Amino acid sequence: MLQRLRENKSAQGTLLALPTTVWLFVLLIIPLILTLIVSFGRRSPDGDVIYTFTLDNYTRLLGYSTDCPDGQASCFDPLYVNILGRSLSLAFNTTLFVITLAYPLAYFIARAHPKRRNLFLFMVLIPLWTNFVIRVYAWMMLLRKEGAINIIIGWVMNALNIPFTPFEMLYTPGAVLVGMIYEFLPFMILPIYTSLEKIDTSLYEAAADLGANSIKTFLRVTLPLSMPGVVAGTILVFIPVMGTFIVSDILGGRQVILVGNLIQRQFLDARDPTFGSAASLILMVMTLIVTYFYTRKFGFGEEIVVG
Amino acid sequence: MASEFAVEMRDVVKRFITPEGNEMAAVDHVTMRIKNGEFFSMLGSSGCGKTTSLRMIAGFEWPTEGEIYIEGIPMGHTPPFQRKVNTVFQSYALFQHLTVFQNLAFGLEMEGAGTDEIKKRVGHALEMVQLTGMDRRKPKQLSGGQQQRVALARALVKTPDVLLLDEPLGALDLKLRKEMQLELKALQQQLGITFIYVTHDQEEALTMSDRIAVMSKGKVQQMGTPVEVYERPANKFVADFIGESNFLEGTIKSLSKDEASVFIPSLNAEVKGMPISEGLVTGEEVVVCVRPEKIKLVDKSVKSDGLFPGRVTNTVYIGADTQVFVDVNGAKLKVWEQNRISRLDPKSFYTVGQEVWLMLVPENTLVLKKD
Amino acid sequence: MNPFRRSPFVIIAAIIVYFFLYAPIVGLILYSFNASRTNVTFEGFIPSFSERVVMDGSLVKSSPCGPFHWYCDLAKNDDVAEAAGNTLTIAFISTIVSTIIGTMAALALQRYNFKMKPFSQLSLYIPIVIPEIVMGIGILTLFSQFFGWANNAFNLVGDSRLSLGIATVTISHIAFMVPFVTLVVQARLQGFDKSYEEAAMDLGANEWTTFRRVTLPMILPGIMSGALLAFTLSLDDFVITFFTNGPGSTTLPIYVYGLLRRIITPQVNALSTVWILVVFLAVLLLQILQNREQKQHS
To answer: Which of C1, C130, C232 lies closest to A284 in CB terms?
Structure first.
């Protein structure tokens, strides 16, 4: 028996990978299939799922409505399409801002003295290790009318003799954007740092030797070589932003509804799992499409798990 | 010992699936008999199958076809830890998390040796490779040469019947490598165990080995003593691979038991009395192999049989020799001239464009199949 | 060109980003000493110690713990203790399981060829490319369907009825942690020269001894960093836990989230501060240990 297993490399591999593969199959793939099945179902009056095959949930999501104002049988209701669009544009904006903020810091760390790099990196990780929910809460305190940001602006305005009344920053799209940027910034810094750090310093010397000044060296050598990090970071930021509901829940109040909030409410408040499942599949397809086209253009960031 | 042969490979084939999905024979019907106490080398360029052969003897790979015998016992799918052979790895593969002592003790612990015995044997092995006192260091704290010795000691401390060495000196610089070559040879003679040595360095193989197997494309091209493979290469590949050779094309005019006379167009002459390799027939198109150091250049004023005119196209001074490149009716020949006399006058060397005579001694040539 | 040269622009930008990263945390800690119960504005530190808590409207005038009033308050909070216990239980169990099976899978994927290898490898990327909420509701659907069926089929009643709880949270955590462990260990294994193992076998060690004495010690740093990543992922997780927890399995993030939707006292800040401190110290300790080990090895 042992001798047999010893000689059968393929069986050894299968056996070693089996627990993980089965676990992932049962808890990731079967749930996706179930979600798909449920999304074609209909909600019973008491909130249960009636298994049938209907595309109603999807047509409703894409704007088909039978609840029309002037007696029409059907009309276009932009409610859900707007939610999807809002989520998408928020994810794009967050990613752009995060890249803008993360790149200089990653560059700073990568070019710091090797002895200090670990400390600087550690300083990026500390906020990441404080809890996600706590981080949102911190911004809740900063952004509100009585919060620190208003107080500080007040001081500055006072010193400049400009009249200023504190205003509510909480429960606005801007608050959600700031919260998202804050939450996911470290996920961009780490992969960019990893790819920057990999660049051999002799390449900078070679570029200088061939006559490139520091700006040209950056644009022609550093930036292209750090693209894998940017790509990995983008995947690590864009996808979770698309699906997060806490940030918008807490910092956006009921004002900023994203697809994540929509799904969550279908499962908890509204109790329509069929509609929630359909929304969640649309969300998944949207992120997969964006990721597909993005990675097809830039490649799949290999730095994705290194940080 | 039960068998005359320490290791025997009988008609061994090893096929791999390449990443592209094609099947490739890394070792193609190889048969080798390695005698007890022999220093045996497998020589060839990368991908010739020498390392795969060694790995099959060690037990890291199993033959697809054929059988490997160690001390007369067929190995089949015996795992490496049940074979009485030990390996010195190209990368040394020293356990970085263990000290030198622990590295050496590892194999003895696996045998179930007691603490005292381990201490004694490890101490002895370290003495043998002149590393006494280094036992508490980690491999990273040693120089490349020292690491190499640890790898050697770690394998030898197990007192294997056969020691397998996979390019063990490849990472050392030239001077250290030459020293180690002699040391290894001395060690092998002192211990009297079989060494199977894999290398791509022909000089290394010639220096150390009792016998050499020259390999190419998964096949053994020739097996023999260093003198045999150098002086009587079995084919054009071996002649080209071991040392350097000039090849002159020609046709066999007549053939005796061990000599031929060949018409060589570029010399515009029929050269008689040249030694031959096996399987040649009269009228066959052949190549005549001449080693560069076996051609002599003589002054143009003398003229006799076996002298052919040529013109110097380039010379390279390399210290011990001067390499002279001569054009003979379009055939380019290399000639190594020993610098026997110390002088600085450039005129005393051959110069480009100079007319010279080449002296070919038929006994110093070899007629080979044109492949 | 000096590779360590940086332009002032980069330095200023780095300072700004660090400020952005830390300002909210500093504010959070500061407010944990707030005298105001409502915690809307900062009303100064709680000024003095007294035997009993003295309140003036919503302001705490003095307390047995003085400025640390909210920390004492927190210590008395049984819900927090329970949530912390749950969080750690879940994190420990899921880290151990995911590290073991994840390392096994990494070895399989890096070393062996087998039929389901492409499938195994591909399934690792699911948690990276699919939003967490999609997995969360999927797992919730799976559990509720399965429990509904099992409770019916086996006539389970009362306490023996299957329901969401610590077990479901742990199982779900393992599902999204395993891929990260596997990918991290796999990355480390890529640089692992196979000849170390061959050397061990050559010296007489069988497969298991080789793994225990050579492979494991050499890849342990990789496994440890995989485990650390898994542990922090589990501690930090909100979404998956949100959908898979049940009565009695509230974790700290879920507990804090619940508070944020109701009245917030500086107790939340005190909790956050303790959390940050504990995580900071734990990571610092790990770093020091790792550094020491590295020094020993070099």
So the answer is: C130
CATH code of the domain containing A270 = 1.10.3720.10
Alpha-carbon distances of C69 from C54, C78, C237, rounded to whole Å = 11, 16, 29
CA C171 to CA C255: how far, in whole Å? 20
Total count of domains within chain B: 2
Q: Find the mean pLDDT for residues A38-61.
A: 88
Interhelix angle C132-153/C166-190, nearest 10 degrees:
130
Chain C residues with beta carbon closer than 8 angstroms to that of A252: none
List C-alpha distances in Å: A292 to A231, A237, B26, C194. 12, 15, 40, 35
Q: Which residue of C has its CA nearest to A19?
A: C101
In this structure, what DSSP letter does residue C41 have?
Answer: S
Which residue range(s) make up the domain with C36?
8-71
Mutate one of A7, A9, A10, A12 to test the B interface: name it (highest B CB count within 10 A).
Answer: A7
**Selection from C199, C206, C177, C193 nearest residue C105 by Cα:** C177
Sign of the torsion angle spanned by Cα atoms A254, A260, A263, A265:
negative
What sign has the CA pseudo-torsion C131, C137, C141, C142?
positive
- CATH code, B271: 2.40.50.100
Residue contact A284–C138, C-beta within 8 A: no
Q: Which residue has the tokens 């830039």?
A: A298
Q: Is the C-alpha dihedral spanning A162, A163, A168, A174 positive or negative? A: negative
Q: What total number of domains does chain A contain?
A: 2
Q: Which residues contact A227 (CB under 8 A, 6 or more apart)?
A: A195, A298, A299
Contact B69, B7 (CB under 8 A): yes
Q: What is the mean pLDDT of each successive set of 10 residues along chain C, which is 298 residues long?
A: 66 94 92 86 83 83 87 91 94 97 94 90 89 94 92 85 91 95 89 89 92 91 88 90 91 91 86 89 81 63
DSSP state for residue C67 in the 8-state scheme: G
From A301, A278, A239, select the one nearest A60 (Cα to Cα). A278
pTM above 0.90, yes or no: no
Q: How far is A307 from chain B (nearest CA, A)?
A: 25
Both A30 and A155 in one domain: the answer is no
Shortest Cα–Cα distance, B80 to chain C (Å): 5
Which pLDDT belongs to residue B300?
A: 65
The Cα-based distances of B160 to B4, B150, C281 in angstroms read 16, 16, 52
How many domains is chain C built from?
2
Q: What ipTM describes this predicted complex?
A: 0.88
- Residue in chain C closest to A182 (alpha carbons) equals C21
